[in-house]
Amino acid sequence: MNGHPTREEDFDLYALGALEGDEKQAIESHVASCADCARKLAEARGRVAMISFAAPRVEPAPHVKELLLARVREEGRSAAPERAVAPREADSSSSGGVFGRWWTAVLAPVGVALAIATILLWNQNQRLNREMADLHAALVTQQKTLEEAHHAADLLAARDTIVVPLAPMPGMPKGMGRVTYNSDMGMLMYDGKVDPAPANKSYQLWLFPMKGDPINAGVFNPATDEISHWMMKMSPGVTPASFAITLEPAGGMPHPTGPKVLAGSVPVLKG
Ligand SMILES: [Zn+2]
To answer: Cα(11) to centroid of ligand 1, in Å?
Structure first.
């Protein structure tokens, strides 16, 4: 076996001494060259050691074992429907599957039901943890989107927000952009579309203030036909003279060094 074991239960089954023949060898040869799986096996050994220590000295009723084994089989199927089929799955079906085989293996009957139940619960717990992590990530993303929508609405609604169109410079990649900026809020929003940057280059948006050095307002590398959009919190109270996108070494620079690709001046307001 070159790939990782397809079932997380396999580590526990191996640690329990329940795998035989090809399956046993496959795990042994794989963990010898896979640090990740070697760590999983060590964890499984730890669990099995704890289970053995805690195993009650009673023989569970046969129907309890059967019930738990049925649950484990069910779990294995529902947990890994989309995973790649390992070569051994083809031959295991003819001999009753991996569980069919290991059940007939030399497992001490005492504590077997507890071991199976613990594996079942542990795997359920792992799945729940992963689902929780996914849900949390989705929630964070939604909160960020909502927050940004609020900021954009505030920015667009503010009376002193300015909109500065950015026009292409001669001989530069084609495109157009727009900066929406509010000095009091220190909030900048960029929307635009420009041809992809040459290799090893990035675009960088700058705020050129009336006084002082240009201020970084975002580095980007758009794909073909990609519309770029971002919002950026900046130091409030800066009065801009113009905005420009320059071509910089990949990843951007602390100060503009390259030619302007798109640029636009702030219209002079007379009060
Ligand atoms: Zn592995």
So the answer is: 11
